[in-house]
Design goal:
Keywords: ATP-binding, Nucleotide-binding, Repeat, Sugar transport, Transport. InterPro entries: AAA+_ATPase, ABC_carbohydrate_import_ATPase, ABC_transporter-like_ATP-bd, ABC_transporter-like_CS, P-loop_NTPase. This is Sugar ABC transporter ATP-binding protein. With 516 residues, this protein is of the alpha/beta class. It has three domains: 7-240, P-loop containing nucleotide triphosphate hydrolases (Rossmann fold, 3-Layer(aba) Sandwich); 259-333 and 454-465 and 475-481 and 509-516, Rossmann fold (3-Layer(aba) Sandwich); 343-416, no CATH class. The protein contains 17 helices and 20 strands. It has helices at 45-53, 75-80, 98-102, 117-130, 146-159, 176-191, 204-210, 233-240, 294-301, 324-330, 339-342, 350-359, 369-382, 399-411, 431-446, 460-466, 488-508; strands spanning 7-16, 19-29, 34-39, 60-65, 68-70, 83-86, 164-168, 196-200, 213-218, 221-227, 259-267, 274-279, 283-287, 309-314, 317-318, 332-335, 419-423, 452-457, 469-474, 477-482. The protein has a six-stranded mixed beta sheet, sandwiched between helices. It has a six-stranded mixed beta sheet with strand order 16-17-18-13-19-20, with helices on both faces. Strand 19 (469-474) and strand 20 form a beta hairpin. The protein binds adenosine-5'-triphosphate (ATP).
């Protein structure tokens, strides 16, 4: 790749009507450098990336590339200018091969106009070698691991020889080893291939491992930009969330021994059997990687998936439900992991989004707008929702704030929810709000009798910080049940050993079930 100049943002601003989202942003992205952009939920990170990728048109200011000044561009122009973005949700055609995906939308043709499959495969091999990935260009994408699929996204970008590669929360779907491999690849892209990389994440450990420089955004402005070597994690937390509470403070592990939810031989289509009791006041963590079955399990318990077999009792009542509405009525609710796709209503306002699951029980005449507004204000304050205006449209909330709003539905006490299920409760949530959400979940489970929560996570730190007891889920099976006091390293090691053991028994064709 040829040597390139920095990309500069000069006085970049973005407003939506009267709402200013980015204000006079001046930043420089240098070739050969990983630049982490951090900030609380709603600070303006996605908007800034949108300006660079062409998804958002700046209100004023400019982007300067090799002396050329752009007032904003369309996505195609951004690509042509050498800017490539990799989103959290992969944009791959799963039934096509690796090389088909690397050339997706930009296919090579032979001089007779046919698809140049051989040429594409050859270039794909060269690109994969350049970034140090051992993959067969003819392999079908759906047969690859999540980490390998992300590698293809990166290969697709690298083939275009980008000046600037943007990674937006790239590790959300990855396991520990895949994260390490990705961070090594990112460093290699910058330090060896000379690409300018922007890395956006809420995970500060990753920032310390990969960034050369760090910029913190606060309320749409650059608070500071500093070399990574000059900053510690404590300073980052203080800069991102000045009011953050430590994840460990106010922790109470008191759980009664009174059973609340009982699973007897419970099976979903992929997971089980489970024989397990969740006690009143308990927060049960399911620690499992993508593909472990954690989402299938939670969605089945919440009535979103069928079939299930075995027995489930809640407050000593046997449950039989076939929909999420029936589950809700029985006292079981789920906060899904993909709130933008599965939970938020983009065109409804914030109050309506908060109240949505509760409307089904009241006629229009029974609605009490003042009370709803009061509840919304309370939730917005408890969860530090930004923006906190009741009329804000669902589509205007940043990822982390959308999560808070969806969570607020079940914490506001309008339904008698006994078992709250959460899939990746703090994915995409900033460090300050994470502590806040943990506190609210503890309050939910422990301050009112007859309640408990069950959450799934792929983050060992989250499992340890939030759970009273942790179930290690591997390929749909309970591999271990442990106390969080074992610590992060031991939890990881248990999960890895179980995965290796599962691989071995799987190869031998054994399907032995492990029950609690
Ligand atoms: N279309 C829109 N109309 C009005 N406001 C918007 C719109 N899109 C975004 N915003 C506001 O812009 C602000 C910045 O949002 P942005 O998504 O850039 O934040 P973020 O830092 O990426 O947050 P997160 O970490 O939660 O993803 C938020 O307060 C959001 O409400």
């Amino acid at each position: 790749m040829t040597a390139r100049n920095s990309i500069q943002l000069i006085d970049l601003c973005k407003s939506y009507g009267t709402v200013t989202v980015l204000k006079n942003i001046n930043l420089e992205f240098r070739p050969g450098e990983v630049h982490a952009i951090l900030g609380a939920n709603g600070a303006g990170k996605s908007t800034l990336l949108g300006c660079l990728s062409g998804a958002v048109h700046p209100s004023s200011g400019s982007i300067v590339i090799d002396g050329r000044e752009f007032k904003g561009f369309a996505p195609r122009e951004a690509l042509d200018a050498g800017i490539s973005i990799i989103y959290q949700h992969f944009q791959l055609a799963n039934s096509l091969s690796v090389s088909d995906n690397v050339f997706l939308g930009d296919e090579r043709r032979t001089k007779w106009g046919f698809l140049d499959k051989a040429g594409q495969a050859r270039i794909t091999s060269e690109v994969l070698a350049r970034i140090g990935l051992e993959l067969d260009p003819d392999e079908i994408v759906e047969d690859l691991s999540v980490g390998e699929q992300q590698g293809i996204e990166i290969a697709r970008s690298v083939r275009r020889e980008p000046r600037l590669l943007i990674l937006d929360e790239p590790t959300a779907a990855l396991g520990k080893h895949e994260v390490e491999a990705l961070l090594a690849l990112v460093r290699r892209l910058a330090h060896e291939l000379g690409v300018a990389v922007i890395f956006v994440t809420h995970l500060l450990g990753e920032v310390m491992a990969v960034a050369d420089r760090i910029s913190v955004l606060r309320e749409g402005q650059v608070l500071w930009t500093r070399a990574r070597s000059e900053v510690g994690i404590g300073e980052l937390v203080a800069a991102i969330s000045p009011d953050a509470v430590s994840l460990e403070t106010r922790r109470s592990r008191e759980v009664s021994q009174k059973g609340l939810a009982r699973f007897h031989g419970f099976r979903s289509s992929y997971c089980g059997p489970f024989d397990l009791t969740i006690n009143e006041g308990e927060i049960l963590g399911i620690y499992g990687m993508l593909g472990s079955g954690r989402t299938d399990l939670l969605e089945t318990i919440a009535g979103a998936r069928r079939p299930w077999s075995g027995r489930l009792t809640l407050r000593d009542r046997e449950l039989h439900f076939e929909s999420t509405i029936q589950a809700m009525t029985a006292g079981v609710a789920l906060v899904a992991s993909d709130r933008l796709a599965q939970a938020l209503f983009p065109s409804l306002n914030a109050v309506e989004n908060l109240m949505m699951p509760h409307y089904s029980r009241m006629s229009r005449l029974m609605r009490k707008p003042r009370k709803e507004l009061g509840m919304f204000r309370q939730m917005a304050a408890d969860l530090q929702l930004r923006p906190s205006g009741p009329t804000t449209a669902g589509s205007a909330f940043s990822g982390g704030n959308a999560q808070k709003l969806v969570l607020g539905r079940w914490l506001c006490g309008l339904r008698d929810i006994a078992l709250l299920l959460l899939d990746e409760p703090t994915q995409g949530v900033d460090v300050g709000s994470r502590a806040q959400i943990y506190q609210l979940l503890r309050r939910f489970a422990k301050e009112v009798t007859g309640r408990a929560a069950m959450f799934a996570t792929s983050d060992p730190e989250e499992a340890i910080a939030l759970a009273d007891r942790i179930v290690v889920l591997v390929n749909g099976q309970v591999a271990h049940v442990v106390d969080p006091s074992i610590g992060e390293a031991e939890l990881l090691s248990l999960a890895q050993t179980a995965e290796i053991a599962h691989g071995a028994t799987h190869q031998l064709g054994s399907k032995e079930d492990i029950a609690l």
